[in-house]
Amino acid sequence: MAARRDFLAGMLLALAPTDTRNLEAGDIEIATPDGERLPAYKAMPARGRNYACVLVIEEIFGLHAYIKDICRRYAKLGYCAVAPDLLFRGRDPGKVPDAQALADLDAALRWAEAHGRIAAGKIAVTGYGWGGRLAWLYAAHQPKVRAGSAWYGPLAGPSTAMQPRHPVDLAAGLRVPVLGLYGGQDRGIPLDTVLKMQSQRRRGRSGSVLEVYEEAPHGFDADYRESYRKREAEDGWARVLAWYRKHGVG
User: Fold this and answer.
1) Pick from 60, 126, 204, 247: CA 20 to 30 A from residue 145's CA?
2) Burial of 48 (0-12, 13-18, 19+ CB in 10 A)
3) pTM value?
4) Could you state, in order of their start, the residue ranges of all structural domains in the chain?
């Protein structure tokens, strides 16, 4: 509950929201194979087609204003951005099985392919915090993904029935290039796990890169929280966009 209160208080710090002018943006529902209706948010240019697609994965706080704003930022640059609410079944983030989250992301991708006017083969994934971990996993799971970015997502942990593998376990075999952005002052993601991930990814073929902002805390891109660091956030955003262009998703 304390984390929720901190989140709500932090909303007062949010930057001016990205507008919807010339965009098609709003809440949607996506059918899943198990018969559920997956809530999501989509944003894309109002006209045209053959856009690149980016799946945006939420923080532990859910599909809130910040994540929706990120979708609109991408849409302003010519992307179809879709953010599924992976927590909609009422579970807290620690009780969402990886298999379920990946299946819901697959459903969101199918929606984008059917309704997002996207170009074949131009698929990216990004995630923040809790979603940053899933961005690595989805890049390993979904062969249609061409590039990914992970903002300070956990990289290691114990193997459980719900979370059998972690990014560090997948790094050596990963074939999709992922850009990981981490804070050197992140108390939740020890720097030694970032270093271990860097070592593991060197054994693979994906060409993934991990960048560490030495003075940044966890959540340095979250512009509604006190953890926000403007310089690092803007540099990270520029790096992500360049990363996508480099790998043909932009």
Assistant:
1) 60
2) exposed
3) 0.94
4) 2-15+24-246
- pLDDT per residue as tens digits for the range 3-54: 443 444 344 446 789 999 999 999 999 999 889 999 999 999 999 999 999 9
How many helices and strands (H and E) does the chain possess? 7, 8
Give the C-alpha separation, 55 to 81, whole Å.
6
Assess contact for 247 and 146: CB atoms under 8 A: yes
Question: CB within 8 A of 185, min separation 6: which ones?
Answer: 214, 215, 216, 217
Could you tell me the CATH superfamily of domain 2-15+24-246?
Alpha/Beta hydrolase fold, catalytic domain (3.40.50.1820)
Burial 126-165, CB ≥16 within 10 A → b, else e = bbbbbbbbbbbbbbbbbeebbbbbbbbbbbbeeeeeebee
In the chain, alpha helices (H): 2-10, 65-76, 98-115, 130-141, 167-170, 191-201, 230-246
Whether the CB-CB separation of 38 and 32 falls below 8 Å is answered with: yes
Euclidean distance between CA atoms 189 and 140, whole angstroms: 21
Residue among 42, 38, 40 at smallest CA distance from 24: 42
- Cα–Cα distances in Å, from 161 out to 16, 146, 177, 224? 41, 28, 27, 34
